[in-house]
Amino acid sequence: MRGFNSGEDVAPTQSRLKSPLFLLVLTGILFLVYTNGLNTPFQSDDERHIIINPNINNPEFYLNSTYITYRHINNLTFALNYQWSQQNPFGYHLFNLLIHICTVILVFFITSLTIKNCTEWGELGAMKIAGMNALVFGLHPIHTETITYISGRPGGLAALFFFFSLLLFLLGGLKKRKIPGYFYYFLALITFFIAVLCKETAVTLPVIMLLYDLSLMKGENWKPFLSRLVFYALFPILAILAYLRSPYAFTALGDLLKKIDLSLLWVQLDILKHPLKLFLFPINLTFEYDFKAQVMWGSFVVPLFLLAAVIFLVIKKFYLKSAILSFASLWFFITLAPTNSVMPRVPLFSERNLYIPYFGLSLLFSVILYLLFFKERQKKNWLGIALVLAIGLCFSSLAAKRNQAYASPSSLWADTFEKTPKKISVGKTLSIHYLMEEKYPEALKTLNALLKINPGLYDVHQNMGLAYKSMGDLSNAEKKFKDAIQIKFNAPEAHYNLASLYGKMGKAINSSEEFDVSAKLFKGHINPPPPNFYSDKARAHNQAGIAYINAKKYDEALNQFQKSVNQNPNSLEARFNLARLLLDFKNDKQQAASHLKKALQLNPTPQQTQVLKNLLSQIPKK
Question: Are 480 and 464 in contact (CB under 8 A)?
């Protein structure tokens, strides 16, 4: 009989006591690491998801199960966030961080349960591997895009329910549970469908469950495979029922499947080395990558060969009856497939799509660390502990530093453009944010860099004109607007910008002419004119009329005043100028009186009223 204080009894008890303390400390670290990201502003797609979302103020819309929309549950959380925080980003960031913390806790328990019941390493080994896995996964800097970027929430929220569903599935498969297995399986199905409604990439969960079942759920701790056949059969059955309930969601899925492009598989295999490299060396992270939709065979074959060789050697050395290393490797490839395989995507690669796949790599890494430094090697424990602490410290500092890039829209895109200097779309986005933030010198520097890549970029010349105009450099602004028109004459907004500039420069006649061209081009154009276009146009015609009077070109002046009144019948100044010219130049007393009377109905000031009445009194009544 074993003694009460035997090491075998004490170690598991200590592990159970240490687990809550470890998770509490890790939670505190995560809050500290992401504190500097909690007050960052809305970025990129956040405006589409929150500010201009027509249903953001109506959570009840997302509680209607008959009309399931794209990423329905994710949109529901945004609507709930809006009820609590309105347009204050802090609440949205805090929610994202809480999702991540809960996911890390689930990662810890899934790893612990797996190692304890699927390997010979026992509860102490499970505690060590689970701790390392939670630490590496939780602090990895690549997850900042899922956490700090508000619109990165779908991946994080889907992962939360993805891991929760997997944990429930594992609990249902264990023997000697007080709660019946079918209860866990029922909850696992529900949480799986919630995960899919957060982000469609969660559809890989049944494959992961089956892989886990066939490779790891063996031995005396697990119920037999046949006991779970009904559970697996429920997935297609419930999918059919969900389709009958809300066919719209599946129609959208069908549209996605039609876009499959098998040629992209080679492109994504070429890109595959990048997420593998970023896992070990998470530096130069960026919001958008500049990968081309073509295979670079020279850079494709060698890394793929090296990767296969490394995986083979690792599995050969450490297999030890358990398929945990193979399972972790396959997890990465399977969960990455929905976003990085045969579906066309712009961009081809995004860091936020690595959230769930990186569980596989962090588990693989943690198991290898355990086998190298902690399994029956007491002398190497200190070295392993030092290495894990160094990794945690390094990842924490890199994550906190990465959060700083989200301080403003321009800082995020400036960081992105610095790392992808040849990507024109990134430079354009950065320049627009600089213009919005009134950082005109920085905008011009970015726009000039874009012209070095392609001098024929119409919108770049346009934005340079706007920057020069805002800085008061009207001469360069005029040059840039003319360059834009030369590149794309039929662009109405280019003529509008030049017309507005001419008005500011006092070139009223030129302004009037450009407004006429712009108005003609806006007819039938895909974009409507700006809200103040017609009032500006009316003002320009009025100013042009005054310029023609000064040049003693009365017929042209009359034409301009008439255009101004036609454009804006409520223009008091244009009415007065037209009436005065009709009276003095054409002697058309009837028309002049008509315009003066209409001008009196436009709420003139007392002084203006007196002037209008005096002029009207000079016209004899019939």
Answer: yes
The residue written with tokens 């499970």 in the block is 126
* Phi, psi of 220, rounded to the nearest 5 degrees: -70, -15
pLDDT category, 1, cuts 50, 70, 90?
very low
Show the DSSP H helices in 174-261 as ranges: 181-198, 205-215, 229-245, 247-257
How many percent of the chain have pLDDT more than 70? 86
The 10s digit of each residue's pLDDT in 473-511 is 999 999 999 999 999 999 999 999 999 999 999 999 999
pLDDT in tens, 199-252: 989 999 999 999 999 889 888 888 998 889 989 998 888 877 776 666 665 565
Residues 231 and 379 in one domain: yes
Nearest alpha-carbon partner for 101 in 27, 167, 195: 27
128 Cβ neighbours under 8 A, 6+ residues apart = 370, 374
Helix (H) or strand (E) holding 19: helix 7-34
Provide the 10 A C-beta neighbour count for residue 474.
Answer: 17
Between 385 and 586, the higher pLDDT residue: 385
Tell me how far apart the alpha carbons of residues 577 and 595 are, in angstroms, rounded to a whole number. Answer: 9
Cα 63 from Cα 192, distance rounded (Å): 18
Let me know: does 333 contact 326? Beta carbons within 8 Å: no
* Together in a domain, 401 and 525: no
Among 216, 205, 193, smallest CA distance to 163 is for: 205
| C-alpha angle 478-484-488 in degrees, rounded to nearest 5 | 145
Q: Could you tell me if residue 481 is inside a domain?
A: yes
Position with higher pLDDT, 64 vs 215: 215
Tokens of 105: 């806790």
Q: What are phi and psi of 66, to 5 degrees?
A: -80, -10
pLDDT tens, 284-322? 999 998 877 665 655 556 556 656 665 665 556 555 446
Q: Does 132 share its domain with 58?
A: yes
- Give the Cα separation of 416 and 427 in Å (integer): 9
For residues 370 and 436, membership in a common domain is answered with no
For residues 155 and 139, what is the distance between their CA atoms, to the nearest angstrom? 16
Give strand pairing partners of 174. Answer: 222
The residues, any chain, with a CB within 8 Å of residue 177's CB and separated by 6 or more, are 171, 184
User: In this structure, are 487 and 378 located in the same domain?
Assistant: no
Same structural domain, 374 and 481 = no
As a whole number of angstroms, the distance between CA 223 and CA 171 comes to: 11
Residues 398, 437: Cα–Cα separation, whole Å: 27
Is the bond preceding residue 347 a cis peptide, omega within 30 degrees?
yes
Asked whether residue 505 is assigned to any structural domain, the reply reads yes
Q: CA 570, CA 328: separation in Å to the nearest integer?
A: 72
Give the chain's domain count: 2
Domain boundary among the residues 406, 430, 446 is at 406
* 8 Å CB contact between 357 and 275: yes
Range of the domain at 323: 33-237+258-406
What mean pLDDT comes out for the span 404-415?
95
* CATH at 442: 1.25.40.10
126 in the same domain as 58: yes
- Would residue 211 count as lying in a domain? yes
Task: Give the pLDDT of residue 249.
Answer: 58
User: How far is the CA of 524 from the CAs of 8, 145, 490, 520, in angstroms?
Assistant: 81, 41, 12, 9
Greatest extent of the chain over all pairs of C-alpha atoms, in Å: 128
Q: Which residues lie below 8 Å from residue 598, measured CB to CB, with a gap of 6+?
A: 569, 575
Of 146, 167, 111, 186, residue with least CA distance to 34: 146
